[in-house]
């Protein structure tokens, strides 16, 4: 009887301890870590310099003087330099009539380079990949691009596969979110995220100004990211995901229509960017920050902001016309990884978050060197920070991205160790930031602004360049 009495007391306690241990154990394996990532740098023969860009523009027979002047203004103010990359079919003169093989070749070159390098450097076999997430927004093929990767690298039959399209420039954080949710329900998982964009079938050859802009800022690129929740690999991790917030304004017509793939009046397909885009982006950004801010900032900063805001509201008459209370994001964030949607986008986010030129430098330099590479842009910005040896153990990095739909996604990473290894920036990082990031388009083609519409004729490129 005494034994039974002890058993009745001990068993519930042991059971409770087991339940608590199980809960803690499961929570410990729900972390999301980046083991490594590899950004893609296309071959040098795909580099767009000023003179070749002028040749590509001149090949478009649908453009007139006003379109030339508009393009010159857009390119000069874009923030892009002369070392960005375009699809190979542009250099073959097929931008108006790309083939199916052009699209596949663009993706295959990226897959072969970045995925191969990533797996080799991390010593992870393709058979050890449990989850594959591929996001290429504007190219959907059969078999899928994810199937092509599985076939190329002979991955396992039971691999979990997600093939995302139409997610736009914010797709890489959507992919990370998908992986994070899988990690919550499965232990000891390795995941590979592949993010890029296919420009070959989407180069616009018409004269609609809202669609020409995409040719000015979007460039070829991509990134492969290896993530895990394996406890045994935690010491090898570069980053740990702290939180991730997704905001979607697709229910609002003005947000849905501001960034959309469509045909122009002549039936030429392209990507339309409307004048309401800045407004839609601002709304999504504000809503996203409203949810993200309490997750990433210390309580003292939140209290300070609340007190200052309340004080200003109570004294409106005396503070009329004064500055609004501003949240100091630097109290909880060390580095800002901003989407390179364009110079205006970087300027706008920088102003909204009260960032210094040092804070926005990685995004500006990425836009200058690689252009807007869509969903992979964030990882080139992160690579710049790493190459500059800015990322130290314990630092916190805030990523902010925008995408069609309209979406704003953000996340916070914690740096797990001092970083400074070689990456896609290695061969040029010492020359950044340059003293002057202005491109030479105005110097070479500024004469276009002085032309008379009634007498203007497009001369051979060599003739005009030699006159300058």
TrEMBL record:
Keywords: Acyltransferase, Membrane, Transferase, Transmembrane, Transmembrane helix. The keyword 4Fe-4S does not apply. Its EC number is 2.3.1.-. GO terms for molecular function: fatty acid elongase activity. The active site is at residues 169, 248, 335, 339, 368, 372. GO terms for biological process: fatty acid biosynthetic process. It catalyses: a very-long-chain acyl-CoA + malonyl-CoA + H(+) = a very-long-chain 3-oxoacyl-CoA + CO2 + CoA. Residues 333-414 form the Beta-ketoacyl-[acyl-carrier-protein] synthase III C-terminal domain. GO terms for cellular component: membrane. Pathway: Lipid metabolism; fatty acid biosynthesis. The chain crosses the membrane at residues 6-24. Residues 26-313 form the FAE domain. It comes from the Eukaryota. Belongs to the thiolase-like superfamily. Chalcone/stilbene synthases family. This is 3-ketoacyl-CoA synthase.
